[in-house]
Amino acid sequence: QMLSTFLLVSIALIAFANATEYPKVFVETYYEALCPGCQGFITGPLTNVMALPDIAAIVDLKLVPYGNTKKNADGSFTCQHGVDECTSDVFELCTMYKLSGNSSSIISGDTSEIAYPFVQCLEINEGSPSKAESCFASTLALTTSLTWDTVTACSASESQDVQNFGALATPTHDYVPWVLVDGTLLQNTNTLLYNICKAYTGPTPSSCRVSAKSATSPVCNN
Predict the structure, then answer these.
(1) pLDDT at 111
(2) Which of 28, 49, 137, 218 could form a disulfide with 180 if both were Cys (CB 3.0 to 4.6 A apart)?
(3) Cβ-contact 151, 95 below 8 angstroms
(4) How far is CA 76 from each of CA 83, 86, 110, 162, rounded to the nearest angstrom?
């Protein structure tokens, strides 16, 4: 019995050491809610990667919904695909902010992984703000203490604030989705899994044996 307990503890310690010894792969995604290419990436390659437990475990995900939005002289914002895109972007930004209560989460991305199921649902629905409440109800309302009322209150009174943080968090880019893997631009977003596996310095996850796709990926230019 004592030997069995010792073995179990040893196995647990080894697993913990393996999980903490190697840095996660930092995957940054800069996008906008109504961009078809962004929707395709979030609901395709990113969804496929995050559905693999051994890959999701080695990924540090950052999502910033701002993309090609422009700030106007009066402090307002114009989104590439119109008012609905601004509304959905703000819903997502407010969610990331309110999950921690700190607007700096938009810049750091420390709540992105928690917010991801909501973002994914909204992008499956082509970024339509009319689907935001039902997406929230089926995702974060079930897994966090955040309420939809808190998100909508933020969108009503703090929209420019969160968009300013979105602007600060978004690097100079030529198009969206602008995806970086450990700081290196992903020229073809369909190779996300391959590049995560290539960047990871730990033991090779079994899912990394899947061959990478080579098809080109659509974008929304500036």
Answers:
(1) 98
(2) 28
(3) yes
(4) 12, 11, 26, 12
Q: Are 30 and 170 a contacting pair, CB within 8 Å?
A: yes
For residue 93, give the nearest of 121, 126, 66 by alpha carbon: 66
CA distance 89 to 35: 11
Q: Residue 152 belongs to what H/E stretch? A: helix 148-157
Q: What DSSP line would sit under 90-125, residue for residue?
A: HHHHHHHHHHHT-TTHHHH-TTHHHHHHHHHHHHHT
Two tokens, residue 138: 């089926």
Q: What is the Cα–Cα distance from 83 to 221, expressed in whole angstroms?
A: 18
Q: Does 15 score more than 60 pLDDT?
A: no
Other CB atoms within a 10 A radius of the CB of residue 130 amount to 10
Neighbouring-strand partners of residue 2: none
The whole-model pTM stands at: 0.88
Question: Residue 16 to residues 19, 22, 69, 95, 201: CA-CA distances in angstroms?
Answer: 5, 11, 42, 31, 16
pLDDT of 14 reads 52
Rounded Cα distance between 105 and 121, Å, is 21
